[in-house]
Amino acid sequence: MTDAPPADPWLTDALDLDAYLARIGVGREAPSREALARLQSAHVRTFTFDNIDVLLGTHPGVSLPAIQEKFVVRGRGGYCFEHASLFAAVLHNLGYAVTRHLGRVGDPELAPRTHLTVMVDLDGERLLCDPGFGRSPLAPIPWVDGADVTTEGWRHGIRKVSDGTGDAWEVLQHNGAEWELMHTIDSLPVRPVDVAMGHHWTSTQPASHFMTSLMCVSHGTDSDGTALIVALTEKAVTIRRPGQPTEHRSITPDDYESLPELIDSLGANLTAQELLALVDVVRRLRSKNPS
Length: 291
Known about the structure:
Number of domains: 2
Strand content: 25-35%
Order of helices and strands: HHEHHHEEEEEEEEHEEEEHH
Shape: globular
CATH topology of the largest domain: Arylamine N-acetyltransferase fold
CATH architecture of the largest domain: 2-Layer Sandwich
Helix content: 25-40%
CATH class of the largest domain: Alpha Beta
Largest sheet: 8 strands, antiparallel
Structural class: alpha+beta
Number of helices: 8
Strand order of the largest sheet: 5-4-3-2-9-8-7-6
């Protein structure tokens, strides 16, 4: 005899919805396209996209209670498995119809299914919410072939393709000159064990780029109100504004003393001990690949 599966395998009842809404600064609203966009924008701008816990070897896992402690209580950020799991639980508790989908980042013939997204069915329309992809959209994207949406200057699209077993969907971002592939999502069902396995591969596989380079991305606004994305690696700070040239500033080992201040400015919300440990990790990463 086998145990019956839990009634709520995603543990969405464990979410402190009021604490989450207070953290991102958004009030409770009935489901609507406008309310969904406000939630997604606030989420993306509140929590950094980063792999800091992976690099420190202190990742608490991707169960909802662990993510809630990290994001909602501490104000930390993380990567797709955390962002999308938390956002899906929030939407579920607000009354949205939610499903989760996995995707492949890069060449779908080579890449594993290591990106988690959230799909919402609302008023007869299917919408993609993708809060955990570095340069994440600030609003949902209609899940239709040829969708092309611009939000605060950032342009994203959807294209239907075939992955050899059925329909798949390319999620695209526009760099001002052409479309770039972000990831390819399939239609297979997703269960908590799939998310746990994807996280395990991403956070332990030596070939995973989350193991070999610092990533810390913050969404915000410039002094004139223009949307802004700042991305930090062990080698550079990159600043993007829609419709403007991308800025790159190299970081040398001599700059590492100021790295804790820079990470703080992005809203990563690390403790003093974590900041010191991260600087040591960054020095090791740079020594392995100095060019």
